[in-house]
Structure to design on (200 residues):
């Protein structure tokens, strides 16, 4: 346990395997995120991060890879997002999230000003692809074979969702001004879909 960020790393090519980062489980009085990664190409392989007061993981460089878990990724309170990738104003690309789990519909994954990202074989709560300041090169990315429990907001054009299952709390909103979204073979009996974009 630690007060403030447990691990902050600003260099490129950070790698961690089979590590669990843990905040304060019983009385979440600690502040900050569990992990702050600002360099390019960070990889967390079979790791986990729970009881974070802020984000379980905040990563703002290119090519963030979260692959597998030995634990869940979650915040202590369930507010906000468990995992946040990207930063407003800078297009970061080629993120990969595979086999990662968060435990609550109120948490989830947020991506800001990203492009060419892939999320697959994962379970998480909310999902937000935030347009930020919309620099050149961003796109809505791909989500395949996931179970999504919370609200979904897609604010960047050209997103793909294939073979996903949505929870009873799921709503899917494509933002006004976006276009080119693909939506195939999903189990969406409980989901409410709102398309405010220019086209489907």
């Amino acid at each position: 346990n630690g007060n403030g960020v447990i691990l902050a790393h600003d260099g490129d090519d950070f790698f961690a395997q089979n590590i669990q980062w843990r905040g304060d489980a019983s009385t979440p009085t600690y502040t900050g995120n569990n992990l702050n990664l600002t360099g390019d190409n960070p990889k967390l392989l079979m790791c986990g991060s729970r009881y974070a007061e802020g984000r379980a993981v905040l990563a703002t460089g290119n090519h963030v890879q979260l692959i597998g878990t030995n634990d869940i990724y979650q915040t202590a309170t369930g507010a906000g997002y468990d995992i946040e990738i990207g930063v407003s104003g800078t297009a970061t690309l080629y993120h990969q999230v595979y086999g990662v789990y968060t435990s609550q519909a109120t948490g989830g994954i947020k991506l800001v000003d990203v492009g060419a990202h892939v999320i697959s074989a994962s379970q998480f709560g909310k999902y937000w692809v935030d347009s930020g300041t919309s620099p050149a090169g961003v796109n809505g990315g791909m989500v395949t074979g996931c179970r999504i429990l919370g609200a979904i907001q897609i604010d960047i054009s050209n997103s793909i969702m294939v073979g996903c299952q949505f929870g009873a709390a799921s709503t899917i909103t494509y933002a006004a001004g976006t276009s080119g979204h693909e939506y195939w073979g999903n189990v969406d009996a409980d989901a409410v879909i709102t398309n405010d974009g220019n086209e489907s």
Summary: The mean pLDDT is 90. The CA atoms of residues 10 and 164 lie 34 Å apart. DSSP finds no helices and 23 strands in the chain. The radius of gyration is 16 Å.
